[in-house]
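Posted in: Protein Modeling Q&A

I'm a second-year student putting together a small comparison for a lab meeting, and my supervisor asked me to include a predicted structure for MinD-like ATPase involved in chromosome partitioning or flagellar assembly. I've never done this before, so apologies if this is the wrong subforum. The sequence is pasted below exactly as I got it from our records. If anyone can share the structure token output, I'd also love a short note on what stands out.
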Amino acid sequence: MSGAPRIVVAGTAGGVGTTTVAALLVSEFALGGAPAILDHSDGALAERLPATVRDARGLGAGALAIHDLGAFASGEGAAALVAPGAIPVIVTAATPLGCALAERAIAGLRTAAGDAAPRRLFVVPVAVHGRHDIGAALKQLSATHGARIPAVLPRDHSLAAGGPVIGARLDASTARAISALGTGLRALLG
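Accepted answer (user: helix_wrangler)
Welcome! Here is the predicted structure, written out as tokens:
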């Protein structure tokens, strides 16, 4: 992978949990040294970080950067998602529509970037109210685009209130889902 490694977290729509997933990843990777953060929204990502992580990070100092692109998985965000060194993480609602939006975003990246499109990317479906059968849609995303989907991020009341994401308050299933995503990303980072 050329360029400095950068995990680019982009949502298919506003409010799907892009900034929360980015904050969870910053905390996940902070154990090995605080990653640099790039924030699309004047500090929303920093507000989601625990004080210990927020105060320890050095912007631009880490070998790894986590970029919270917000709800720009399509259109103007495409350039950041296909930049050298970028590992795209597409965040979407764990619904049939959310899977269709992820499919559209990934297809758009492939069309716009051609051979420069990332061959490895992750999709993080975020659970919402109600039951939604998305197993076939997730398999299709993986088969068609090679998307890695380590886990569905479950609904977690400790994340819904806003404010800092505190690891000790996460449900065990949320911690497992983020750990699985972190493991997959670490494998690509080497």
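A couple of things worth pointing out for your meeting: The chain has one domain: 6-189. The first helix runs from residue 18 to 30.
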